[in-house]
Fold these 3 entries.
Entry 1:
Amino acid sequence: MIAPLALLAPAALAAAGPASCSEDSARTMTLAEAAAAQAGLCVRLEAIAWNGRLYADVDAIYAGVSIAYRGDAAGRSVRGGPARMAFDPASRDFVDAGSSGAPLAPMPQWLRLTALTARCASVQCAADAAPVLDIVAADRVRDRPVERLLRADVAPAAWKLRPLAADSPWAARFGAAADALFPALRSRDPQQWVPLLGGRWLAAADRARVERLIGARSNPFFAASRAREKPQRVILGWDAATLDVGERALVDAGQVAEAIICWSQHADAERLWPIAAFDADNRPGRPYACARIAYSIRGGEPQWRAFIDQAEGGLAEPQNRGAI
């Protein structure tokens, strides 16, 4: 059992410098305890690292509860153990060098960390004096994948994405847009899908990225239509609590709205749909394919544009929780 900070002897709370902070001298804590500790304490903990943030567990990722970390504090290089973790200054994330020594894409992963507690004090801080950890050493915790949550894993109130109500005035609009978009993406024909993704406003880099995605043998939109019957489809909107006052007013006024539409060949797709936007990433192996559609009605003229979101690293598909 970890002793409460208030009960620790003063010597145990003495500030440690980088040279004296090691795995042997570090105090084992939870991420929450480290975030609340005084600056300069040498700590040892396990946490999920992803996109420059540390999370206590997968639930914290979906709740958006995290603290920042620095892997290159004071010019120190991070010491990697047997799992060969390296800090990548470009992405400001940890990458696994792998057997070839070539860094792979940053992805969420459990790390065993030795770090110094600190307080953020720069223009890049999310909040003044926010807690931050200066990483001294990092090892990946093997055989502990970071898997995405399914609907059954959390209460519906915690879903960041939820199906659009059937009586919503936006349901028919997004449905019609999806009916036009899906066959265009499945066709792989740029003359069909480019106009729906912005036409001349579609950046060259985004066009090339989408071409690679739908041109691959693993085209997720083609895979979603392999079923003998019509693919399963869902229209997902953001939870109202995630919208600011201005965004909510525009949606309520029927002027603008955004939704994520997903398709799947799985008969039990209802339990597999993403519950957060970062899971609608078209990562290989997902049991669905997704597109984001932004819709607006200006001067009585309806307009919409589709976006195909992707991420190089994302939460892994859950294993041993039913066939996928």
Entry 2:
Amino acid sequence: MELIKKILFCLFLSFLMSCDGQNKKTSNERKVNQTDSIQKENETFILQKQLSKNKDNFKYFFPEFVYQLIPTESSLFDLSINENVYKIDLLLDSASINIWDLKKSKNHLILIEGNDYYGSVFYVYYYHNNVLTYYETFNHIAKEIEKSNGEKVFSIDLKGETLNISLSQNNKNSKYNLQPIKDISLLSIKDTVNTSELKEE
């Protein structure tokens, strides 16, 4: 009888230890998930390196995307993203045109810059889930440009729908808070059909 009691007691202890281990595992998994969630919320937009550009054709090459500004009949420009064309109707009359690509997770912030000597105008677009959203325009005045034409450094945060952009140049910082204006219409989609595989009827 005593032997049976000892066996039952040992089994009971093993059961308690197993439950405690499972609870700790579940708690640890919850902490990991919470940490991952916080890290995703705190992800920042990372500037993507421009690999090359074709100034004559307004074509800009990045690791994931090829952007191109396409002139229209009305002297405006549309935007091509990997040959998918969006109707942005952009008027560009600056001396130099740049495109900045900043990535957060799978989403991209696209800044089209009309750059002149004393400042720039930035047209801001947010590319997410194959949707292009226009996020206002802001003008940046280059301070102390006579002393130094320093590199532009961006710090960008998206809270809800508000896009907070901090732009530093020549140790001077400017901040801009932008709101979404509209989603941009997709004019044409890249034809991915391999014509060599099509059979004549």
Entry 3:
Amino acid sequence: MSKKYRSRNGSLHTYEFYKERRDDPSWEDDFLRIRAIRQRNFLIAIVAVIAVVIIGGFIYEEGQKGKSQNTAVESSSSSSTASSKSKVSESSSSESSKVEQSSKPTENKTSNNAEQIKKFLIGKTYKVVPFLYDGINANQAAHTNKAPQNFVKDNITILHFIDSSTVTQNGVNGNNQQKNENYQTSDSTITIGALKIPYQMNNGAAEFHSWNTEDQNGHKVTWKIEPYHENNNQDEDHHDHNNDDDHHH
């Protein structure tokens, strides 16, 4: 159904009605007015369509940009994650390498000390002596009955290192039967059975430190190790004998 337009006298007619009477002076003004209205409405419709197309295109373009940005973010995130993992892996690998490298000198040092002490000991003879008993001079403790009689002499051990794995043990007075034992070395300890002797290497030479043990009655015994020469031992026996005589007097 065609749209109708109101004339100046108030009647409603279609555009075709006005167009057919455009040459009639009584209808000419109505025709021109109605045609102008139609043209204006047409222009408005065209502008509206263009606006809708532009807005629609803008919305579509923004939507595409949003998708592209999301894709880029996801890609960047994946790339960043992969890069982070790669860096973490490289860092872990680097740290692992550093740990391995830093541990090698320690391992070498440990191995070197254990081997050096063996070479140093071969052919040498040492005396292991208890020299303190509960913090008191061991001879004095024995003389004052705070330690068993002959405590020092009965517990002196002579060690002769035959080779890199064998040591001969013997009591200083021949009280203990001579026997050969295997020994082991670590970076700081010489182990002969239950005997553990602390040491450190300094320019190829061994430095020995005193150490503590506890006897069966709970008394603390402090030990030392020193080079042994039989003549020195005889002198010490004579000195201990004099101390015994002084004690008896």
